[in-house]
């Protein structure tokens, strides 16, 4: 992620992650650079550069949220909070981790709800995030 932030600028990386997280990949005018997808997803995202089958689209949202662990600003707060209610548990889990790392206070109500998520990994990520947000540094 550091290399991508140096290469294209942190603001561009954040904007690309937000577009992917919101499911805007491939929409006219909002296409995300395939090299960013590869940087976010690593070898499983090689298809973005070489072509081929991409796999489930929720992975793009997981990778985008993971990118926001490392490159983040306030413009990502709304999309990352929205991702806490994603239909796929891996997206919810990663979004909770991002909220915790960046102490997204506005996410506390959703994190409280996720403490009762059907997936234990999501529950634990939400609980850790809420503790981090509410604990003084």
From TrEMBL:
Q: Which Pfam families match?
A: HEAT_2
* Name of the protein in its database record: HEAT repeat domain-containing protein
| Top-rank lineage group of the source organism | Bacteria
Native organism taxonomy: Bacteria, Bacillati, Actinomycetota, Actinomycetes, Micrococcales
The UniProt entry, under InterPro entries, shows: ARM-like, ARM-type_fold
